[in-house]
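Technical appendix A lists one of the benchmark inputs used to test multi-chain prediction within the project. The record comprises two sequence entries:
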Amino acid sequence: MSTIALERETRRPTEAAVEPGPIPMSRVVGVEFRKMFDTRSGFWLMTSIGITALLATSAVILFAPDSELTFETFATAIGFPMAVILPMIAILSVTSEWSQRSGLTTFTLVPHRGRVIWAKAICSVLIGVVSMFIALLVGALGNVVGTAITRTEAIWNLTVTDFALIVLANVLSLLIGFMLGVVIRNSAGAIVAYFVYSLLLPTVFGMLAAFQTWFRDLQPWVDFNYASTALFNATPTGEQWGQLGVSTLIWLVAPLAVGLRLVLRSEVK
Amino acid sequence: MITVDSLTKKYAGFVAVDHVTFTASPGRVTGFLGPNGAGKSTTMRVMVGLTPPTSGGTTVAGRRYAELPNPGRKVGVLLDASAQHAGRTGREILTIAQRTMGLPKERVAAMLDLVGLTGAEAERRVRHYSLGMRQRLGIATALIGDPDALILDEPANGLDPAGIRWMRDLLRSFADQGGTVLLSSHLLHEIEVIADDLVVIGNGRVVAQGTKSKLLKAAGTVVRSAAPGDLTRALMAAGITCTASGDGSVRTSAEPAEVGRVAHAAGIPLVELRSGDGAGLEEMFLELTAESQREAGSHREAVSQREAGSQREGAAA
């Protein structure tokens, strides 16, 4: 049976002259996108974006005082789970190739690892931005429903600029996760590192700034978390943009460059 | 065609692959044989660009692997059947390969059919697969791009006897249609039945290579008698170098006809007289295996046997 089937399936030597075209980048992105959804864990991770957005919205409607039922409150409440889930999505998209060892196939079918990593970055950012719009939509619904329940007037105090800045902040923290995935290439390790990065590091910097005067002026420039909070408050000043740029360079761009070098040169086992 | 040219891979402290050179030709099954840790997998990983070589290189269809525009369409690769996301279904894993290579959707079902995975099995997640099913899925992934060459690392692992037979027929017909097959194994008998050419590797070095028939021919004659001592003496008196094995058989490089004539002249009744198919290869292979630390016990045994043999040879000289 198998012999007959194979005769049909395998190549005829005369066809060898037909050269298959190179794999277009759009196809690599498409495949990587599919891979983010096609496992049970991946599926639920994606679904959790919607679920947590709904939970956060319900919590605001239930527990927030009527005066606080504004669009900004909803947006902030939804922003918290997002800030955790989005980096996880980015981390796992990279690390699963190593932790689950699927990279053996991935990097054999696409031997240019940079393209695969680049495709994963595109997918992660795309999912991050789309998630923020879903959050916006859920928040808007919450605002309408919440104020309808309390019979107060809906307050739409979130400008387009505010939203754009929040999206940028979330994409940046997603990219921090992505960077850690590339550098560490182990799911558990990268997730732990992300929490060290986002929870422990700010505390350390805060204490350093509190006790060491020389560090106080330096902190906005070297503390990424500190610099990125500017995006949540109001329109950042030119200096704040500069601080964000410098700290992003230190904590995101530089380690990502090192991580990419490692990924391109390392052995996939 | 697959070529490996003076490939060397060094790790801190040891050399995994040491100037390995060989060619796997179209239309032939090349068996890559060696004990565990000999450097087979490392060589194969270098071939497909997963491990950077220290020096030397490999080509597939005349090009470096990374230069192939769509490698899956040229070379089917199976390095480790278990290296898959455990949460994906078998069908999904094939679909990812099909999409990456830009193949028609129908290839997925065709490949499942070819490797004998049922529709229900294809919908199960790979974490629930047996090793044999994973191997079949891995073979399906390797074949889906309709490649000219196959690189398979221990593909028979975990397959039952019927599965091994199936694999053998599959690879045979692939090669018979002009495909190049390179498959590794640490089991001589497994590879002996399918390979046309053999490359034997030990401690990172190629220790023997050539066509199977040539390598097996070099094995000489095995002869057995109720009185191996008398037989050895008679052969040596006739100027035939021989060695007595521990199991009472005597091995020599002389032709069976000549051995029979000597035994007949000396009046020694023989129990067995045959050409030592594969015996020499097997011995060499066992020695290689024994040199790895894992089988320290059999190592001592092999050494003492070898020493006993050379003493007898010495006595004859």
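Residues 293-317 of chain B have pLDDT under 50 and may be disordered. Chain B is about 40% helix and 25% strand. Comparable benchmark entries are summarised in Table A2.
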